[in-house]
Amino acid sequence: MRLPIPGATRVAVLGAGSWGTTFAKILADGGADVALWARRAELAREIAESKRNSDYLPGINLPRTLWASHIIEEVLDGAEYVFLSVPSQSLRGNLRDFGSIMPRQATIVSLMKGVEKGTRSRMSEVILEELGVSPDRIAVASGPNLALEIAREQPTAAVVASSSLDTATRVAMLVSNPYFRAFVNTDVIGTEFGGVLKNLIAVAIGIVDGVGYGENTKAAIITRGLVEMTDFSVAYGAKPETLSGLAGLGDLIATCESSLSRNNTAGRLLGQGYSFSDVIKQMNQTAEGLSSVAPILELAQAKGVVMPIVSQVAEVLAGTMNPRDIAPHLTTDSDVPQGE
Asked: Which of 38, 79, 183, 265 is 20 to 30 A removed from 279 (C-alpha atoms)?
């Protein structure tokens, strides 16, 4: 049974994977009254009773005030803020399932980093379409946020974006605690695309790491990858400085350099010779970058943006390029020397 915390802001977090559970911990450690929704009843019971999520955050003790349930109506009851942390490709279906019971005045915060296949919509666009709420009630959180490090309470910074600076500020204050701080901006497009695109570059880093290439190759991919990220995002209306900040460069560094990154891990398996289907079977969690490659390339083509690194990743995923052949082609799409 959930016991309300007097005077605390009521918050619902939907999705009890590593990131959803970690963000529920962030919020609870910041003093919010947090309810976490897990699809599986046994996982919700473990979190609620044992304060553990052994599937996704082994060894982490969760706050005593954190409550969980597999009954979504109980989790959403009275929520002033709803944080969404479900796989990006299932967001629309989930919102159609429970959108009607979403608290009408709640602020909706996306924790997801993906682009929907087919529609090529960003997550905030899916939320806007399915819930019909004002854009001022939608925020997105992004940045260099490796879940296990944050769950271990290692100092971390993030960025919260909303078309309303007031909304972004309120969410940033809500998520702040002694080990987690959030900056704010109003560039939702750049913040979301930064979180998506860095995953694709991290897959490339993982591929060359799995092959056995060294730091020179990785540095070239990261540097030129940031150029691709910026060119793409600006073409869709983002501010270039957003991609130089936490949602772009910051997240790119963390995701490319860490073995905790799911996208890096997926790429490394591809580089070691595993097929795309084998990688999917081995991954315990969703690597959003794998499902975002195709829609991002479609969006890039629509704007005439050239993305040689992402294109090469797509070829490896399709099995039409040997991972060992990827590095010589990654930093340019032409044999003619290009201006930097």
From this structure: 38
Output the known binding site for sn-glycerol 3-phosphate.
113, 143, 198, 251, 261-263
Concatenate the DSSP letters of all residues of 14-72 into one string: E--SHHHHHHHHHHHHTT-EEEEE-SSHHHHHHHHHHS--TTTSTTPPPPTT-EEES-H
Q: How far apart are CA 325 and CA 312, in angstroms?
A: 9
C-alpha 254/C-alpha 34 separation (Å) is 27
Q: Which CATH superfamily is domain 189-329 in?
A: N-(1-d-carboxylethyl)-l-norvaline Dehydrogenase; domain 2 (1.10.1040.10)
CA nearest to 91, candidates 322, 291, 331 = 291
| pLDDT tens sequence for the chain (340 residues) | 677 888 999 999 999 999 999 999 999 999 999 999 999 999 999 999 999 999 999 999 999 999 999 999 999 999 999 999 999 989 999 999 999 999 989 999 999 988 898 999 999 999 999 999 999 999 999 999 999 999 999 999 999 999 999 999 999 999 999 999 999 999 999 999 999 999 899 999 999 999 999 999 999 999 999 999 999 999 999 999 999 999 999 999 998 988 778 888 888 999 998 888 888 777 655 666 678 888 999 999 999 999 999 999 999 988 899 998 887 666 566 677 777 7
Q: What is the largest CA-CA distance in the chain?
A: 66
59 CB neighbour count, 10 Å cutoff = 9
Which run of H or of E encompasses 72?
helix 72-76
Q: Which residues are catalytic?
A: 198
Neighbouring C-alpha atoms within 13 Å toward the C-beta of 298: 12
Distance of CA 191 to the CA centre of its chain: 11
Residue ranges per domain, the chain? 10-186, 189-329
Q: Are 247 and 194 in contact (CB under 8 A)?
A: yes
Binding-site residue numbers for NAD(+) are 15-20, 147, 262
CATH 3.90.1150.10 fits 10-186, yes or no: no
Report d(CA 209, CA 268) in Å as an integer: 6
SS3 114: coil
